[in-house]
Write a structure and sequence with these properties.
Oligomer: single chain
Number of strands: 4
Largest sheet: 2 strands, antiparallel
Shape: extended
Strand content: 25-35%
């Protein structure tokens, strides 16, 4: 089910996106079925720091969860996400 992408020189990072599958998740105290997939990022620590790698994965996750935000300036979108 899970794997780790392998970096081949001269790559500095590689993003693996696993298959999208329906999975049970808890939402507001109920079990519901949601489409989910796993992301895996392998990176060369000599070139890309861990903090930057996590920020990149967070940006990818946000883009997949809220694709319409790609068309809204970031300053306007963030308050809407926070409630």
């Amino acid at each position: 089910m899970l794997s780790t992408p392998i970096i081949n020189p001269p790559q500095s990072a590689i993003l693996g996106i696993h298959a999208t599958k329906d999975r049970p998740v808890a939402e507001y105290g109920q079990v519901v079925i949601r489409s989910m997939n796993y992301l895996a990022l392998s990176h060369d620590q000599r070139i890309i720091g861990g903090c930057e790698a996590v920020q990149f994965l967070g940006a990818i996750k946000e883009s997949l969860e809220y694709p319409s935000l790609q068309f809204v300036p970031r300053e306007e979108a963030l308050p809407a996400l926070r409630g």
